[in-house]
Write the structure tokens for this entry.
Amino acid sequence: MRHKILNDENQKTYALILDSGDEVMNSIMGFAEEHRLQASHFNAIGAFSRATLGYFDFDIKDYKKIEIEEQVEVLNITGDISLYKDQIKIHAHVVLSKKDGTAHGGHLIEGIVRPTLEVILTESPAYLLHEYDEEIGLSLIKIDSPT
């Protein structure tokens, strides 16, 4: 993976270029850990040789996996990076297009890049925290209301 900083003012913006064979979630996590990111958001386009998506089933409070075992275009990945119990957490959703133009989407669990993935990642000057919501069964970003 290669990267270049695009903005170094109060918020930094990076371009991450992933190559064939890179796994997107591990690559972004490694970058987030190396740069100690605590609050960021990112978008990406490119292509995968295969991917695993998830659909959150509220009744069972877990993700049902959707396996995509073919070359697909990544129409968009949208995600954020935050902290949960002092650990970096990445939450991303993806829309993929198969060769017949049908689209598939969901929570991005894994994506194997082929031939490239272009990620634009913007770090916020503040940090975000996740907190587990027992009723929903997910950890969600917590934003305190101003007093």
